[in-house]
Amino acid sequence: MSFSAGTVALIDNGGANVASVVHALERLGVNAERTASPERIAAADRVILPGVGAAADAMARLQASGLDRLIPALTQPVLGICLGMQLLFAGSDEGNVACLALLHGQATRFPTGGLPVPHMGWNELRLRQPHALLAGLKDGDYAYFVHSYALPVSADTLATADYGGEFTAVAARGNFHGAQFHPERSARVGSLLLANFLRLPTGSR
Amino acid sequence: MKGVQFRDHEVVGDILDLAARYAAEGADELVFYDITASPEGRGVDRSWIARIGRLLDIPFCVAGGIRSVAEAEAVLAAGAEKISVNSPAIANPGLVDELARRFGSQCVVVGIDSQTRDGRYEVYQFTGDPTKTRSTARSTLDWVREVQERGAGEIVLNCMASDGVRRGYDIPQLQAVRAVCGVPLIASGGAGAPEHFAAVFREANVDGALAASVFHKGLIRIPDLKRQLLADGIAIRPPEGDAA
């Protein structure tokens, strides 16, 4: 597989899965740059915001480095993964924190209707809107999730999954995209989504 | 949402090949045990973890000899999704709290070796070396409750009496643990035939089934097992190449 993906900046915001995302991109033949530098991020053709941990901590780190102001101004394709996706939404009940509000919705804790939380494991995707990010994915494809908070379904929702209720698994608005699951650990389905992201047009940049 | 997992006791050179093969065949998660780490008082050799992390596109867990936050951090930074603690958690239960606080419960698996003793289920330790294996005199059900309160995000219950015997998982024991376990529960020990996996999912309502020797010895192929489970109505990720 080969891409003219351009440069890919992987925002190093202190999460534990940054290395896994680097490796997944390497398997697609793309060398991403791990960076927290606003200049390097702004200059990249594509930007990925991974994230594992708590929303309030992650937002505090973005604010400390000024990335909370930089990210909304980006015009190249941006992909948030897991907590990185949740940070692109309006806010999270986890620590009751305001996030970047580039996608519509508020992350809430899973209803604990007897199911174990965190939601951890493989779950089926339901495709809700056609989008270049989902090219080649099929309804019922499985992806690997690890999360305790979830986004409701909204106009930005591209795909959902169900765990005691339907929630947003993939979302997009303009150049901002998010995957609640971990594409770097979702085998073929995850590679497809990452490859699709690497193929998205970079616009007029 | 059920998972078929796998653990291995082989040497490093073979691990990379085997890991790639099992991932390609549709294993949902791989668990790498350094079962000799704790009895010999040493940590995990981590050079292979980064190699596994580069190779695998499915989640994996590393177990064995992780006694501190620093050791766990190195394993997670190398690409593991989860770390599993067993004997070190028994020696220092506060380790579970520390790991959960630092990395989140989703990273923290507690492995429990358990079997019947004096009419109740008891936790054993140092099971990697038969000459050092001993009961801790802790009740398994109490320990399952305690580690959840301390922040464990998943429990792997290895039922020692059925381990390696291939006559099926210890369903009564797994049912008893399931009743007190609100986090994902993985069954371990006893898989010998595809129907054993179906039975443990159906009767003990576990979230995953872990097996080693049946896969390793080629007695069960993962794609065949998953097709059988799907035919039995168990919700599981289909093997690669099959229609979703």
Please describe the topology of this protein.
The complex is a heterodimer of chains A (205) and B (244).
Chain A: E1 8-11, H1 18-27, E2 33-35, H2 38-43, E3 46-49, H3 55-64, H4 67-73, E4 78-81, H5 83-88, E5 91-92, E6 97-98, E7 106-109, E8 119-124, E9 126-127, E10 142-147, E11 149-150, E12 157-162, E13 166-173, E14 176-179, H6 187-199
Parallel strand pairs in A: 1-2, 1-3, 3-4, 4-14, 5-7
Antiparallel strand pairs in A: 5-6, 7-11, 8-10, 9-12, 12-13, 13-14
Chain B: E1 3-8, H1 12-25, E2 29-33, H2 47-55, E3 60-63, H3 69-77, E4 82-85, H4 87-91, H5 94-103, E5 108-117, E6 120-125, E7 134-139, H6 140-150, E8 154-159, H7 171-178, E9 185-188, H8 194-204, E10 208-211, H9 213-216, H10 222-231
Parallel strand pairs in B: 1-2, 1-10, 2-3, 3-4, 4-5, 5-8, 8-9, 9-10
Antiparallel strand pairs in B: 5-6, 6-7
Helix pairs in contact in B: 1-2, 7-8
Describe the 3D structure.
The complex is a heterodimer of chains A (205) and B (244). Chain A is α/β, with parallel strands linked by helices. Chain A contains six helices and 14 strands. Chain A is globular. Chain B is built from ten helices and ten strands. Chain B has an eight-stranded parallel barrel with strand order 1-2-3-4-5-8-9-10, surrounded by six helices. Chains A and B meet through α1, β8, β10 and α6 of A and loops of B.
Unreliably modeled segments of chain B: none
What name goes with the CATH superfamily of chain B? Aldolase class I
| The CATH fourth-level homologous superfamily of chain A | Class I glutamine amidotransferase (GATase) domain
Largest sheet, spatial ordering of strands of chain B: 1-2-3-4-5-8-9-10
Helix content of chain A: 25-40%
Count structural domains of chain A: 1
Strand portion of chain A, in percent? 25-35%
> How does the helix and strand content of chain B classify structurally?
alpha/beta
Oligomeric state of the chains in view: heterodimer
Strand content of chain B: 15-25%
Average pLDDT, all residues of chain A: 92
Radius of gyration of chain B: 17 Å
CATH-defined architecture of chain A:
3-Layer(aba) Sandwich
